Amino acid sequence: MLTLLHVSWRYDASGKYSGTSNHKLFGFMRPARVASSLRLVNDLIWEQTNIVLANQALLLKIQATKSCAGVSLKTQELYAVVFLARYLDLLLNYISVYNTVMKLFFILSSCCIIWYIRYHRVVSQTYDRDQDTFRVTFLVIPCFMLAVFVNHDFSIVEVLWTFSIYLESVAILPQLVLLQRTKNIDTLTSNYVFLLGSYRALYLLNWIYRYWTEPGYRQWIVWTSGFVQTLLYCDFFYYYVESWRKDERLRLPA
Length: 254
What we know:
The protein is an all-alpha fold. It has one domain. The protein is 69% helix and 2% strand. It has a two-stranded antiparallel sheet. A hairpin with a 5-residue loop joins strand 1 (9-11) and strand 2. Helix 3 runs antiparallel to helix 9.
């Protein structure tokens, strides 16, 4: 808790950085500033805990079963692109040890999963190449073009950050399509997808709260992308909850 409060930076629901000084954050510990600090911790926990748990669940599945059956390499590569584009500021700014470690974890864990699927002697043999055929160029190119024309500031860092927001909103599509095609969804894979999508769904509530409590708070790019991302998960969420309620193996309709 103290470590999180001490860092003099803030991430909103998208992961976008905006600086704030220590004396402004902690000056006189006024109620409004304490509330802001607590919201910072809440934002960090919501986003980072769920993504960390999601990646750990997937790595656990791969390492324990020596299988990546049901896991989309296309989605993992898209997420690697998302994190690399979003965290380009690692090369430009140092914020804190915690910030750097978390960003590196997201990048390296995604690359590790990709390595297992592509190159591990045993795991790579279980990859569903014939089913994981989603053409990701139809996602990457439109997202990049949209980021070039619709962004907060026309700079390399800002355009890449915006691109990562757009791409993340649709990165799960190859995974969802693969699950519908294979119809064989193990518990760890379903938990991974659920954790990956739940943090963005929770952020919808966070955005609504901040809209009503923070004058001038507007994040149209993040809001729109997050809404689209949550919509893509809705069908999965429904069947996930139903399978949990009935204590059955998850199955998605074709």
